[in-house]
Each structure stands twice: as C-alpha cells, then as structure tokens.
Design a protein that fits this description.
globular
Length: 270
C-alpha cells in the first residue's frame, strides 16, 4: 500500500511541476495561467497527449511535433525535481497530511523562485513574500502547539532569525550596491531564517555560498577552456543568480540535518 502511495505522490509532483513550468514562463508576461499551452516558436496549440509530464518530452524527442524546434529541458527537469521534492515532503511528514501540504507548497514556491531567478536574475516578490509569510506562520503555529512545554526564548530566537538574515543580506546588497547579491536574496533569506531557525539557516547559507563559489569558478573555467565568444564568457564580474544556491543549501539542511550538523561540528567551529 505504501508503495502505491509513493508512486501516487511522485506522479502528483510531476503534474504540479508541469503547472509550475507554466507559472514560471507566464509570470509577468500578461498571459493568463490557465490559458492553453502553445509552442513558442510556431504558435501551435498543444494537444493533451503533448502535455503529459516527462513522457511527452521523451515521446516528442524534445522537439515540437510541427516545427521541430527544440523544447527546453527545463520542462522535464522541473517536473522531476518537483516529484522528488514531493516524495521528500512525504517522508518528512508520513503521518501529518497538513505538514505534507505545507512542505509541498513551500517547495513549489522555491522551485518557481529559483528557476525564475535563473531566467531573469530577479526573485519575484509575489512568491518570495508568500514563502516568508508561510514560514513565519509555521513558527507561530509550532509555538502554540507546544505551549505547555515550549521554551519561549527559543520562540524569540526563531522569530528573530528571519529579520537577522534579512538584514545581513540587505546589508551586503546595500554596501556592494547590488554587485554581490540582489535585494530579492535578502527577502528569500527572511523566509529561510524563519523556516529553519537560527542555527540551521546559518548552515544552509554556508552551503549556499560554497555551492555558489564552486559552480561559479567551474563556469569560469568551463567558458575559458572552450574559448567561447568574449560576450558569452563568464568572469568574476558576471551576474550569477544566488537564489538557486539558497534553495540548494535550504534543501540540503532540511533533508540531511543531522549529517550536515555533524559535518559542521567536525570541520568548523559551530
């Protein structure tokens, strides 16, 4: 029975991921979310069997059935990542359906924020504000659920975690005049601080910085080795979206908390 539920959750995640792709591509374009899907190259209205998550992409071999223009790999990648994260939400909340729904919503918001940031190098306010509000609500709800034996000093630290990391990132944005990171990253850090708490948010940000540095240096070396055109080269001055790395650090810390904490305590003063 559990295997059936796991398969259902993954398929549900694929379907939601397909919807998230629509949101990512249509947000702030003037197009309605529930409008018919079309090929961006020839304008062909897609049929229902061309909209099946992952399978349609494979069946069409990544090309439009009419004009043969390439379909972005973003579609199956976002769908698969959403399916995997929904499975993660299921394993994090095996007996609490409300927590499962909450995690799925938050993961969906992070996916939209990250992929949109990759495309436009900006974090959309609508989604990052919803993420932060839900994270703050989580802090308050958990405190009320454990009112009888809850340490209110812990609640205070959890409430302060969001503004602390927001101000930290906002300060870096202000003093670097937006060269180091964007103000949207500060808004995202607000929600991460409330969601994970002081210590775990710190760990997630450390992992995000490491991932950003490794990927950034890797991209610089990659473009230099392949001798790309000068206008396409990535340098230390190139703008690389930090939102996806914040999401990476967040997920690593959330799913592998005990391993991550042990790692930090072993190799760093923490």
């Amino acid at each position: 029975m559990e295997n059936i539920i796991i398969i259902f959750v993954f398929i549900f995640g694929l379907i939601v991921g397909s919807f998230l792709n629509v949101v990512i591509y249509r947000y702030h374009t003037g197009k309605i979310i529930n409008g018919r899907s079309i090929c961006f190259s020839c304008g062909k209205t897609l049929k229902w069997y061309e909209l099946i998550p992952v399978l349609s992409f494979l069946f069409l071999r990544g090309k439009c059935s009419v004009c043969k223009s390439k379909i972005s790999w973003q579609y199956p990648i976002v769908e698969i990542i959403t399916g995997i994260l929904f499975l993660g939400a299921f394993f994090l909340s095996p007996v609490n359906r409300y927590l499962f729904v909450y995690l799925c919503v938050q993961f969906s918001l992070l996916i939209v924020i990250s992929v949109y940031d990759i495309h436009h190098k900006i974090i959309p306010d609508t989604f990052v504000y919803i993420f932060a509000v839900l994270a703050f609500a989580q802090v308050l709800i958990l405190s009320f659920l454990f009112t009888n034996n809850y340490d209110f000093s812990v609640l205070l630290w959890d409430i302060l975690a969001g503004p602390f990391y927001f101000l930290l990132f906002a300060g870096l944005w202000y003093f670097s005049r937006g060269k180091w990171l964007g103000f949207g990253d500060a808004k995202l850090a607000l929600g991460i601080g409330w969601f994970l708490g002081f210590s775990n948010a710190y760990i997630s940000i450390i992992f995000a910085v490491w991932a950003g540095a490794i990927i950034g240096i890797g991209l610089i070396c990659y473009t230099k080795l392949l001798c790309f055109a000068a206008d396409k080269k990535i340098t230390l001055k190139s703008e690389i979206p930090f939102g996806p790395f914040l999401m990476f650090g967040f997920l690593i810390t959330l799913f592998f908390e005990s391993w991550v904490v042990n790692f930090m305590q072993t190799f760093f003063i923490f």
